[in-house]
Each structure stands twice: as structure tokens, then as C-alpha cells.
Amino acid sequence: MMRLPSLMYYTKLMAKDEEANGLLSEFSEYKDQKEFSGRTDGGYDSIASPTSETTAINDDSIWDELVSILHYSIPLIITFLVGLGNRVWDVWFLGKAGSRDMAVASLGYLFATVAGVSMGTGILTAIDTLVAQAFTGAKNPHTVGVIFQRGLAVMFVFGTLISIVWVNAEFILVSMGQDPELASMAQTYIIFSIPYLFLSYANTTIRKFLQSIALKSFWPGLTKEAFDGWSEFLKLGIPGMLSVSTDWAFEVCALLTGVLGQTSLAAQSVVLTINTLLLMIPAGFSTGMAVRLGHLLGANEPRKAKLCVILSTCSGAIFTLFNAILLYVYRETIANHFTTDSDVIEAIVQLLTVACLCHFIMGFGIVLSCTLNALGKQTIVAGLNLVSYYLIGLPSGLYLTYQCQWGLEGIWSGVAISGIIKSVCELIVIFHIIDWDHECKLAANRVNNQEYTLVA
């Protein structure tokens, strides 16, 4: 959950963003409900025909837009890194305890991620789309508060269903060929993680809401409207769930290749944790970009929206390339910090050689996928992930692992192959197919469908 200092910092930064986007000037008097009554179907009258749309993009506007994106992103990057810190410490302590404990934790974590956490995160991409666009496009500010409550209700139901699956984790893991003793110990890990599942869903819902608006005037009080309009929410959420879940195809591979032994699972745990930690940088950056993009779409600013995406794509590539280089240069240092087992250290060093390439591809892909999710294109992302990861990446990874005897390196190589294919396709969709004027109209229609009307 975003901490108070970060939230205050984020709010202050947004206040400085007025010259770059012209949005917050429209919201300086949020408490006055009449502020929202001047909106047409395309958005606020004052925003629907922005003067900036007729102004050529110059160096100053590019710099201002980049600063705006960073203002949105920096607090989120810090929040994401801090939020994953407990996972890093867990793996570090388990590494000192021995490879078996690390293998059990890795197995439990992989199962929990694939069969629950990632799917919930995917469903909640609906909030990224709906709340950010309603922020600048809704006639009534309480609309976004209703969307937030709707997200909590949906995730409570979904979490209950996932808990039933988790209770039977041992049976599922053994059926997948895992060591029965490891599966039994992993079951205990997973059972104790069930409360975390619900808290994680609630935290993610709250965080996505705050990162999109961070203003209390949008809270309408508890309302039964939260139990209406689920169809529009799930229309975006279910494809979002599929898009995120398919991103974890290589973790499915890791589960299927548990027969590789404790050393491989322990190495996978360390490399996956470090990779995920560093991915929080492009994840936080792209989330801030998605908020900014949603605001621009809701405000009917197609040219600024396209500029936002261009700058975010270039910046994301630079961030992830830098991180990938760090992973490669310091791979031996990383391995020695997490464990004293010589076999595990060797496995980590070998795996990081391939993982650094995967990190660059995955980090760049996060920015692209987040862009499409912000546009409400979760179905496209899900389709591309399904084809690239499950139909190409997963079979390739298993082939390289078993037939070519590459071990875990084969799994990550399969991820690299599928990631390249997916990223190329997403680049084509974003820069050659998307019509930004049309996307602004879709955003207005989407907000209209979610509109919340106060009862006098």
C-alpha cells in the first residue's frame, strides 16, 4: 500500500503538472459539484477542444511531457520496490538456511503466483483503464469511487474461488510431477499465504485507485452501485487477467520442470526474485504512464497521448537495458550474497547470463502491454500473450530444457523468444494501428457507461 509520504509527494508533483497537461486546472475546485456539470459527451467543454491540439510539438513540450510522466512514475517506482522488499529478504534468509528450504519456498511462490496473485492483478487492470479515464471524463466525481468499490467486491469473490484451489495445492503439485515431500511442505506455505491473497487483492485495488486520482473528494460513501455494472468491469478485467497470467508462462515451465531438482528450484527462486525486483522499475514507470495516458484520453488530448506513449517507450527501453547490464556484470556478486551453496551459486551465475536478456525483453514488454491496457485493449494483450508465450514460448522452453538439456536456461530462452515476438507485435499495434482520435472517443463512451448519478 502506498505510504503517506509517497502519497503526499505524489499529490504535490501532480499539482506541478498543470502547465504540461492542463488537466488539474479543471479540478482545482473539486468540492464544487457544479465543476462537473459542464461536461459534454466528449468530456469537459474546456478540455474537449484543447488549444494545445493545434500547437506543434516542440522540444519544450517533449521535455514537459517527460517531466509529467516522471512526476507520476517516481513515487510508484519507489512504492513497488519497497513493496517487493519483503520477498527479497525472504529469499535471502532462506538461502542461508539451505537449498531445500529455498526450493520449497520457490515452489510455493510459483504456485501462488501462477494460480492466484497474477490473475487477480490482471483483473484489476480494469481499474487502470476505467478510473484514470473517469478522472478527467466523468460528469460526477463519485463515479470513480463506485468503480473502486466495484473492484473490491469483484476481488473478494475471486479470492474466495482461488482459496479453494490453494487448499488443494499439494494434490495439484504432485499431479504435475513434483517431489511429494516438497509438495507437502509447499502446501503448508500456500495455506498460510491465503490471508495474504485477500490482503494483496485489497492492497492492489486501493493502490491502483490512489495512483489514478489520490483525491478524497471522489469517495461517494458505501453504495449499492458497487454491485452494479460488473459486466463492463469484467469485460476489461477478464482479458486483463488472461494477459497477465500468460506472462507467467515461464513459471508454469518451472513448475513442470520441478524434476530438475532442488538446486535448479533454488536458483530459480533467487534469479526470479532479483529479476522481479528490477522489473518494478519499468512496472512503476509504465503504471505512472498509464495514469497519465488515461487522463489525456479522458481529456480528449490525442496528440499529447501519443507523445506520452512515444516518450514512455523510449525511456522504458533505456531503463531496462541499464538494469540488464547490471544483472550481467554483477551476476557472481548477486549469487554469493544469497547463498553459500557452491552448486546453487554456479546455477545462479549460469542462469543470470540468460536472465539479463529476458529482463530487457520483459521490461520493455511491460511498458508496451501497460500502454495497451490503459487504452482498454486488454483483449489484444491477452491474445498476443496467449500465442507468443503458450503456443511458442512454453513449447520452445520445454524443448530446450528436455531435448537440448539446457536446464533452466532453456526455460528462460523460451521466454526471450516469445517476448521478442510479443513486443514486435505490440509495437506494430501501438504505432501503426491505433487511431488516437478514435481512442479519445472510446474513452468518453467508456466513462459514460460507468457514470454514477447521485440521488438528490
UniProtKB/TrEMBL annotation:
Pfam families: MatE. It is a multi-pass membrane protein. The chain crosses the membrane at residues 69-89, 109-131, 152-176, 182-202, 307-328, 348-368, 380-399, 411-434. Keywords: Membrane, Transmembrane, Transmembrane helix. The keyword Transmembrane applies. GO terms for molecular function: antiporter activity; xenobiotic transmembrane transporter activity. The keyword Membrane applies. InterPro entries: MATE_euk (IPR045069), MATE_fam (IPR002528). GO terms for biological process: xenobiotic detoxification by transmembrane export across the plasma membrane. It is found in: Membrane. One of its GO terms (cellular component) is membrane. Belongs to the multi antimicrobial extrusion (MATE) (TC 2.A.66.1) family. This is MATE efflux family protein. It comes from Rhizopus delemar (strain RA 99-880 / ATCC MYA-4621 / FGSC 9543 / NRRL 43880) (Mucormycosis agent).
